[in-house]
Structures are given as C-alpha cells and as structure tokens.
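Structure catalogue
Derive tokens from sequence
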Amino acid sequence: MKERIQKLLANAGVASRRNVEEMILQGRVAVNGKIETTLPILIDPGRDKVAVDGESIKLHGKGSEKRVYLLMNKPKGVYSTNVAQGQQRRAIDLLPPDFAHRVYPVGRLDAESHGLLLLTNDGELTNQLTHPRYGVAKTYRAVVDGFISPNIVQQLQHGVWLADPKSGKGFKTGRSHIKVVKRMRDKSVLEITIREGRNRQVRRMLAKLGHTVRDLTRVRMGPLTLHGLQPGDVRSLTPREVKELRALGREPRNQD
C-alpha cells in the first residue's frame, strides 16, 4: 500500500513532515534514483527506494521501529536541525556516539536561544505537537533591554502584528500569557507562554515593541520542563510524560 513520502520519512527519523516537504521542494529527495520536487508523492515502503541528500533511507512500516523520546537542554550555538551547513553543530551531535536511533527535533529553537528541545522518531506525535490546531503551550524566559511597562505587557498578551516573510502579508500573533519576573531601568525578565510556533516569534514580538531580546530560554513545553537538566544534558522521557504529550495531541485547543 502506498503512503505519503513525508509521513514515511518522518517515521524513519529524517525530519518532521513539514521539514520533509521543504526538503522535497529543495530537490534533496530522490525516489528510485530520480529527484522529486512536486507534491504529493506516494510510495510503497516495501518496494520503492528513497534517498535524502544522497543517503539511502531505510523505510519502516507503521510500528516497526522502536519509538524514542528524548528531552534535551540545548545550549546556545547548537542548531535544531538534522541538516547542518558548514561547521554548524546540531542537537543530534550532542547524543552519545553509540546512540542507535535516528531522531529529529520537534519544532524549532534558533541557535541563539537555548533550553528545552524534544527529539523523537515518532512522526505522528511530532505532527500533532507542531500542528497549529492543537496549540501546545511553550514557555520562554526572556531577558530584554529596557523597562517593560504594563502597556507593553498588555500588547503582548493581546497579540502583535508581524510580517510573514514568505507571503509578505501581515498577521497577528495569538494571545499570550506574560509574567514579569523582574523589572529594572535598563533590563527586564519575562516569562512568555505562547501556543504558536512561528520562526523567532518571541524575539520578533518584543522587537516590534522596541525591546531587544538579549537571552532567550525555552523552559517548558506542555508537561515537560528543564528540571534537573544542565545545558547539553539529555534524558529519555518517562512513559507518563509520553502519555501526557499524546493526550495534548488529541485535544484541539480552546479558542480564545
């Protein structure tokens, strides 16, 4: 039976479905020796041969490979991508050399930021956790320039208009929960909880309101926290944590 290639490559631990689609459009995926750049692509995992960047990928049928779930405290300067450019250091490069599974990051955490990063080879769960319909909450601690006034907090909470780099159109961010941890004349510390996953969203929201982010740490994603993890540390999720994540992916968020 044929299946969508992005689903199979996600299940094989290559990348998330969304990232696989980008890789296809960039001409990096070949099926039976032929580069394919047009979606949809349906393949038979038992017959067709797939390569990404020239590397043959072993495709797995549903449930045929052990699912792995890792929580990492990503340091600064480390990229949450499986395809490095030049000398970039990737999150997967921090895993033990004898780690036997191919995993990829769930969502993005830019290289300048640090903190909580989930890695897995569970394509279904990744799709659910990153789909806008479910709006999984993510909390960031931001150290920003300047005194954050109550008016700025209110604007952040109600949404900020930003430009979409791809379409060029404007969009308004969703409602956020803002906690002011510390206010000083030249610096403020905030905890910002959002339910979206746009590229560099927290930095862009604050920059739009005149405050440059100097340090950004993701401290929570759904039920997961950084408790007990030093930068660069990684641990397996507990069965309970996996169950809680799956529950988040089954219940669409309430609309504000």
About this structure: The two ends are 41 Å apart (CA to CA).
